[in-house]
Specification:
- The chain contains seven helices and 16 strands.
- By secondary structure, the chain is of the alpha+beta class.
- The strands form four sheets. An eight-stranded mixed beta sheet has the order 1-2-3-14-6-16-5-4, covered by helices on one side. Strands 13-7-15 form a three-stranded antiparallel beta sheet.
- The longest helix has 15 residues.
- It is globular, with a radius of gyration of 18 Å.
- The structure holds succinic acid.
- The site of succinic acid has 10 residues, from strand 6, strand 15 and strand 16.
Length: 286
């Protein structure tokens, strides 16, 4: 079955389109392994024309790891792991409309996200992806060495606290304000991918607050430099959605950005977010 998969790269830095697979089926382990292999190699993979119910999307996602229940965004009734990402024609702000890595504000960030297009605007609403492995590769040896010794503090406070600049404005989405302290977690600024050994930058403008052990004001110049560097066009690819399409990205090495260029139209997506296997299970699976 995995032999029928066809994989076509879509850009220089990352991204591949996979055809010849129906994600709504109970796929054999070899096919799941082939998809996982393509994901870690290409960092984001795309599928067209998938007829996925929330239950089937959940079942597919669970083949890659336990699914996350978002702490601030209400899941679907009966499917708490499925987030409905909806922008109604009257909404102005969209969800995910800035460069970010999903869930970097958690102690254990997600390893990937699987997004399915349910209802699309007539035009616009593409998603951009940026390879943070390519961004790391392009740095000088000196800056690489400096960053490898540093960690950064991540938090949901900017996005989801009562003062968060976008939480209150996402009309159609069931987004809760964080109640009080939202937590800060420290992650290395350079992640070594556990499956490929490839290094990637791991900071993002939505959730990274400062460099660990540095003041916010001291961190700003270096973080601003990296945020600007990381979105350089040559590190990106762009996915134009069609109804039923699926994007599956490796959150450990990819930023993404949902474009908000379709005023007055509706866009409806469903996402499941994959957590890492608990350590004991990961060892057992090797
Ligand atoms: C997200 O940030 O997960 C949303 C991406 C999108 O809607 O294109």
């Amino acid at each position: 079955m995995s032999q029928s998969l066809s994989i076509r790269r879509v850009a220089g830095a990352l991204g591949a389109e996979i055809s010849g697979v129906d994600l709504s089926r109970d796929l054999p382990d070899e096919t799941i392994a082939a998809i996982r292999g393509a994901l870690v190699e290409h960092q984001v993979v795309f599928f067209r024309d998938q007829d996925l119910t929330p239950a089937r999307q959940t079942a597919f996602g669970r083949r890659f790891g336990p699914l996350n229940i978002h702490p601030y965004v209400q899941g679907m009734e009966g499917h708490p792991e499925v987030m409905e990402i909806i922008k109604e024609p009257s909404d102005r702000i969209n969800f995910g409309g800035g460069w970010h890595s999903d869930m970097s504000f958690l102690k254990t960030p997600a390893i990937g996200s699987i997004l399915h297009a349910v209802d699309l605007p007539e035009w616009g609403g593409d998603t951009l992806f940026a390879s943070q492995a390519a961004a790391y590769d392009a740095l000088s040896p000196g800056l690489k060495a400096t960053l490898e010794g540093l960690s950064a503090v991540h938090s949901a406070s900017r996005e989801y606290s009562a003062q968060g600049h976008s939480a209150q404005k996402r009309g159609a989405m069931q987004v809760a304000e964080a109640d009080g302290y939202v937590g800060e977690y420290v992650h290395p600024m350079v992640l070594v991918h556990p499956e490929t050994g490839r290094k990637a930058l791991y900071v993002n403008p939505a959730f990274t607050l400062r460099i660990d052990g540095w003041k916010t004001s001291e961190s700003k110049a270096l973080l601003d430099y990296l945020f600007n560097h990381c979105r350089y066009e040559a590190f990106t690819c762009r996915f134009s959605w069609t109804k039923g399409a699926v994007a599956f990205w490796d959150n450990r090495s990819v930023w993404h950005f949902a474009l908000n260029d379709y005023p007055g139209q509706r866009r409806h997506m469903r996402r499941v977010t994959v957590d890492p296997w608990p350590a004991a299970q990961a060892v057992a699976a090797e």
